[in-house]
Write a structure and sequence with these properties.
With about 400 residues, the chain is of the alpha/beta class. It is built from 15 helices and nine strands. It has two domains: about 45 residues, no CATH class; about 280 residues, Rossmann fold, CATH 3.40.50.1820. Belongs to the AB hydrolase superfamily. AB hydrolase 4 family.
Length: about 400
């Protein structure tokens, strides 16, 4: 059997000898053509051996592991990243631009919070559902966007589209102040505080008492969901949860994003987006916070030190980061939760992915791809439509809603 171990030095040496020989001979009458063909063959070999790989599936229990293998074939399939942009940063940067945005018409609802603030919830009712025509029992999927995201993000729109095809209803939870609504109180949001999420889940349950409810969160939305499940244990109506590109250890995430290249590509931009949100609601926030000091922050860490941790009453920013890190709460999760991360995600570095914590809880499963970046997971020659992440979402959502009875008592 031929070994699949790839030695780049050997390949480079052999390729150089091959090209030198072919250029002299003039394959097809053209040394340039020989060079192109040789490079293409080498690139294809490298891609198939070192880039396209099956994901690693880890679970704390055999029952959940087998359920995923049986009901979600995507977890066992080789993930073929788009061959011309498989590098993590390129995937992360390109996804918002290359993926199409499905047309979705939302019905907006503003929910009043206990402190007097308001939460914007965008509904996709899917009243044309053929598989679930009864609105009272139509399954509902709650979607949580990332740090500065809204219901209009491409990854959210794709999940709404996948839910539409399944016949399900969607509700998108927009964090306070991000989707155009007025900020009524001097409070926004953070990954550690789940009060608004709890209010939204309770509201959805009251509104659709007979409809099964599951949830999906992306990046910070996934962190918030994981923190919520860790706090609530069995006291939740959610049938299942899937999270994508979550940051499990905030200290590791911020340290990674503060490396020079990643600070330039991502950190500064996200910081400016957070500051734009503060500036948009300055008239409400300036009565409680030093906005000028906040606007001088250069990184997410500095923003959190000057704004987020103070807003939510933490003694220090380190206290906030510890509380916001879902890795500390995974042992308390009592609802089936599938987590998809890419090993090359600079937002959530590989060494901080909670492999050992997942192994200790039969309600958890972790799917790790070698490539995919942060909310990337592009695949296909021209990745305009669904991504690997979208396929994971669709198959898991369908499995939880339609075969969820098989997930009862995963500890057995």
């Amino acid at each position: 059997m031929i070994s699949l171990d790839f030695n780049l030095n050997v390949l480079t040496r052999d390729l150089s000898l091959y090209l030198e020989n072919q250029v002299k001979v003039g394959l097809f009458g053209s040394g340039v053509l020989s060079l192109v063909l040789g490079f293409s063959a080498a690139y294809a070999y490298y891609y198939l051996i070192s880039v396209a790989k099956k994901p690693q599936l880890i679970s704390g229990g055999k029952k959940f592991y087998q359920f995923l293998r049986d009901q979600c074939p995507v977890v066992s399939e080789t993930y073929y990243p788009t061959f011309w942009c498989w590098e993590s940063r390129i995937q992360t940067l390109l996804r918002p631009f290359v993926t199409a945005k499905p047309g979705v018409s939302y019905r907006n609802e503003l929910i009043r919070a206990a402190d007097g603030g308001q939460i914007s919830l965008d509904w996709f009712d899917n009243d044309d559902s053929a598989s679930h025509p009864n609105s009272a029992t139509r399954p509902t999927v709650l979607l949580l966007p990332g740090l500065t995201g809204t219901s209009r993000e491409s990854y959210i729109l794709h999940m709404v589209q996948q839910s539409r095809e399944l016949g399900y209803r969607c509700a998108v939870f927009n964090n306070r102040g991000v989707s155009g609504e007025t900020l009524l109180t001097p409070r926004t949001y953070c990954a550690a505080n789940t009060e608004d999420l709890e209010a939204v889940i309770e509201h959805i349950q009251r509104t659709n008492e007979d409809a099964p409810l599951m949830a999906a969160g992306v990046s910070m939305g996934g962190m918030m969901l994981a923190n919520y499940l860790g706090k609530k244990g069995r006291e939740t109506c959610l049938k299942g949860v899937v999270v994508f590109s979550a940051g499990w250890d905030v200290f590791a995430c911020t340290a990674s994003l503060e490396k020079p290249l990643d600070r330039f590509l991502f950190n500064s931009y996200l910081t400016s987006c957070l500051q734009a949100g503060v500036d948009r609601h300055k008239s409400v926030l300036e009565k409680s916070y030093d906005i000028d000091h906040v606007m001088k922050a250069k990184t997410i860490r500095e923003f959190d030190e000057r704004f987020t941790s103070i807003m939510f009453g933490y003694p220090t920013n380190d206290d906030y980061y510890h509380d916001a890190s879902p890795i500390h709460k995974l042992k308390s999760v009592q609802v089936p939760m599938l987590c998809l991360n890419a090993a090359d995600d600079v937002f959530s570095p590989c060494h901080a992915i909670p492999v050992e914590a997942v192994k200790q809880n039969p309600n958890l499963a972790l799917l790790i791809t070698c490539h995919g970046g942060h909310i990337g997971f592009l695949e296909g020659l021209w990745p305009r439509r669904s991504t690997y992440m979208d396929r994971v979402f669709k198959q898991f959502a369908k499995a939880v809603i339609e075969q969820g009875g098989d997930l009862n008592d995963l500890s057995s």
